[in-house]
Amino acid sequence: xxxxKPEDAVAPNPEGLREDRILGGRVRLLQPVDGYRVAIDxxxxxxxxxxxxxxxxxxxxAGVGAAAxxxxxxxxxxxxxxxxxxxEAARVAMRNVDLNGMKGRVDIMVGDLLRLPxxxxxxxxxxxxxNPPFMPAGTATPSPQxxxxxxNVEGEAQLADWLRVAHTMLRPKSNLVLIHRxxxxxxxxxxxxxxxxxxxxxxxxPGGNRPAARVLVRARKGIQTPTRxxxxxxxxxxxxRYTAAAEAVLRDGAGLIL
Length: 258
Hints:
The chain has 258 residues and is of the alpha/beta class. It has helices at residues 41-47, 66-74, 87-99, 146-152, 159-169, 185-192, 244-250, and strands spanning 17-22, 27-32, 56-60, 79-84, 106-110, 125-130, 170-181, 196-205, 214-221, 228-229, 233-234. The strands form two sheets. Strands 3, 4, 5, 6, 7, 8, 9, 10 and 11 form a nine-stranded mixed sheet that branches. Strand 8 and strand 9 (214-221) form a beta hairpin. Helix 1 runs parallel beside helix 2 (66-74). The longest helix is centred in the middle third of the chain and has 13 residues, at 87-99.
């Protein structure tokens, strides 16, 4: 997936962080100069959440808060809670919450999704969103940078665990939204079976007749409606520029209808 070019950036500060701007400059994002850096995936993830005013959203694996802040910017009346296992990433995420004036609306806490903090009550959330590590444990050499390794390669919590926890936290008939690699769709669908229905697969096509590397998936807890393959969205023009549809999401904060 192509890395999003920051619309604006300042020089790194003494903590090794740099401030970038995403969503057309409306979201300010501190993130490490070295280590995992936000690409376009969390922006598209947030755009795919069919949130309404006053909804309560949970993000599993919130990182430095990019998806949560994008969603809260698009829908100013909802609340987002996030859990992040990396203590330093969670600390930066809460700084980003303050930087964007969203304290009280976005709350990122340190925690392990296999041992959720007590303040996260089951069957509470209207939506759960996630951008899990793409690589299964043992299939790739982890980065020596701990934060980057946790973002890219599964640890103790495997993909089926992420989906199980999402099911536990959702209200009945509510939405799970995730972005993942297309080559793990079989595994995702197997884990969703019997727990979720009304599953929508929304490919993000890179353009140039190339196969989709990323797919957005939306599913509803306890619904039996059959799975549907959506047309998806083409990201790039032949010259490499983003398409107008992609720009609407990345710069204008448009939502996606899956």
